């Protein structure tokens, strides 16, 4: 079986492995991977952190076809089109007992301590399998997991129809946040980035106003657009130490800031930005993972629902469709900024 295995920092290898998954538990489901995407967290682990387990098969955003199911699996059979929720929770800690599954003390995903989806086949428990309606193709379904991450964060806010939202950072999470803000009823969505290509895609997927903050501060431009008031909800999706400080100035008095990006570095907040938390009485929200009770959660149902109805456009976000064997080179190119990359999908069937 062909797989991408992570051995160390910037040491990703395309290998033929004998570790093809087999049914071990009565609720196991084996899926033939049709499409699998690169997540921003994959890039951070590749570039900065290294694997949890040396040589682990990487990847967790995927879609595919069921090839085999354990004897206690009902409602699934070989040939079914599916996606997968890649997350495992313990079910025993205090958070799990309260139904707050995303706060599980032992939360983990495939590709970390369990073999992931950068492979020809992947295995998950039946409760992690997401059946696909006919309207959702494999490319779109590979984006269900990142979409669920975004809507998990949006559910944490109190955004109401007619409200205003600013999305800081127009990578894949930011572009999905633009769309979910519209689905939640936002009247005006501002998309902020320093890359005109990303801002163009943001406008294509629904942003009303795009702001390039490379020339003038995002704060100055947004205040000019809002009469000095700011917006109801700010989404930090860039995962940058700089933007993680700046977002506090974009919310209106009594507004909300929700963090979806992970900076992987210290965040130094200048007095001007920090005082906005206090003087504007902001609500600051963290958002982690994409699951809730009952597992996997309403995030997944909502995503499939809106994808099936064409209300989530992920096709315009996909810039590369590649052979899985190209993985090591592509990861290297992305982290070294050798080319322009949006969402990258691999197709294990290509060999």
Textual characterization of the structure:
With 351 residues, the protein is α/β, with parallel strands linked by helices. The chain has two domains: 2-143 and 314-350, Alpha-Beta Complex (Quinone Oxidoreductase, Chain A, domain 1), CATH 3.90.180.10; 148-286, NAD(P)-binding Rossmann-like Domain (Rossmann fold), CATH 3.40.50. It has helices at residues 40-49, 94-97, 138-141, 144-156, 172-183, 196-204, 218-225, 241-246, 271-279, 298-308, 327-335; strands at residues 2-8, 11-16, 28-37, 56-57, 61-69, 81-84, 87-88, 108-109, 121-125, 129-131, 164-168, 188-193, 209-212, 231-236, 251-259, 283-286, 318-323, 343-347. Helix 4 (144-156) crosses helix 5 and helix 4 packs across helix 10. Its cofactor is Zn(2+).
Order of helices and strands: EEEHEEEEHEEEHHEHEHEHEHEHEHEHE
**Can you identify the CATH class of the largest domain?**
Alpha Beta
Q: How would you classify the helix and strand content by structural class? A: alpha/beta
Judging from the principal axes of the Cα atoms, what is the shape? globular
Rg estimate, integer Å:
20 Å
Assign the CATH architecture of the largest domain: Alpha-Beta Complex
Largest sheet: 7 strands, mixed
The average pLDDT score comes to 96
């Amino acid at each position: 079986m062909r797989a991408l295995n992570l051995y160390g920092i910037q040491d990703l290898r395309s290998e033929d492995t004998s570790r093809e998954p087999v049914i071990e538990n009565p609720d196991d489901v084996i899926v033939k991977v049709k499409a699998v995407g690169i997540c921003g967290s994959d890039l951070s682990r590749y570039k900065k952190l290294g694997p949890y387990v040396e040589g682990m098969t990487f990847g967790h955003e995927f879609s595919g076809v069921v090839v085999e199911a354990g004897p206690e699996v009902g409602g699934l059979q070989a040939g079914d089109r599916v996606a997968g929720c890649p997350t495992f929770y313990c079910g025993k800690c205090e958070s799990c007992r309260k139904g707050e599954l995303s706060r599980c003390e032992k939360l983990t995903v495939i590709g970390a301590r369990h073999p992931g989806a950068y492979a020809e086949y992947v295995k998950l428990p039946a409760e992690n399998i997401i059946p696909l309606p006919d309207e959702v193709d494999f490319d779109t379904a590979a984006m269900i997991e990142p979409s669920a991450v975004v809507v998990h964060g949006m559910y944490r806010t109190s955004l109401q129809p007619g409200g205003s939202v600013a999305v800081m950072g127009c990578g894949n999470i930011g572009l999905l946040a633009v769309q979910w803000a519209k689905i939640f009823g936002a009247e005006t969505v501002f998309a902020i980035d320093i890359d005109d290509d990303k801002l163009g895609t943001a406008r294509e997927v629904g942003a009303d106003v795009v702001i390039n903050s490379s020339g003038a501060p995002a704060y100055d431009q947004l205040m000019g657009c809002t009469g000095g008031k700011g917006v109801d909800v700010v989404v930090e999706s860039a995962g940058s130490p700089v933007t993680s400080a700046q977002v506090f100035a974009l919310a209106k008095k009594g507004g909300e800031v929700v963090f979806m990006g992970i900076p992987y570095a210290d965040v130094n907040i200048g007095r001007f930005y920090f005082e906005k938390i206090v003087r504007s009485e902001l609500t600051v929200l963290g958002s982690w993972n994409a699951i809730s009770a009952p597992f996997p959660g309403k995030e997944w149902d909502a995503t499939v629902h809106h994808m099936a109805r064409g209300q989530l456009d992920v096709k315009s976000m996909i810039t590369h469709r590649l052979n899985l064997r190209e993985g090591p080179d592509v990861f290297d190119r992305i982290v070294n900024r050798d080319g322009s990359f949006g969402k990258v999908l691999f197709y294990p069937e290509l060999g």
